[in-house]
Amino acid sequence: MGIRTEYFAAPTDEAAASVLDVPGGPSEPDLRTHQPRFDAVVLPSVDPFVMLGGLAGVLSGRPYREVTAHPRHGALVCDSGEEGPWVVSVAQPLLDDLASAGPARLVEAARAWSGTGGPTAPRRNLVAALLPLAALATRAADAGHGLYCWTSLTD
Is 59:94 a contact under the CB 8 Å cutoff? Predict the structure, then answer.
């Protein structure tokens, strides 16, 4: 069993929570508009707790323990019980760091991130994950929105 993680931008916790009962997650098209419900990127198996904590530490230069102690790091916004899905928040400092990092910094962060004992994927895969996540963070910051992660168990 694995996890499916979809990161998305929303204006408030309440708006983010509205996606909880959408079977396909935040990028699932709205039946009325046929548009995705939220601006989102799917990052399979990039968990919002440990892996994003490692990334936050790399981008900020602060210790893992410090960045994961932020009250909004992986804070539960809403859940559907033990089987999920769940919606958690991404801490504002990580959103800001992602939004302000250019491509060169993201490549450097992917290299450092792969050396933290976090993701075991090749660096090019980490860069491929970081680029859309950073673009999403930039759009969220421009709109004054927060970042969230919708997480679901997969078979």
Answer: yes
- Residue-range domain boundaries for the chain: 2-154
CATH number among 3.40.1760, 2.60.40, 3.40.50, 3.30.70, domain 2-154: 3.40.1760
Instruction: Measure Cα distances from 90 to 5, 50, 65, 146, 155 in Å.
Output: 12, 12, 15, 7, 25
Phi/psi for 139 (5° steps) reads -65, -40
- Write down the number of H helices and E strands in the chain: 6, 5
10-residue mean pLDDT profile of the chain (155 residues): values are 89 96 88 92 87 92 95 95 92 97 89 66 71 96 98 84
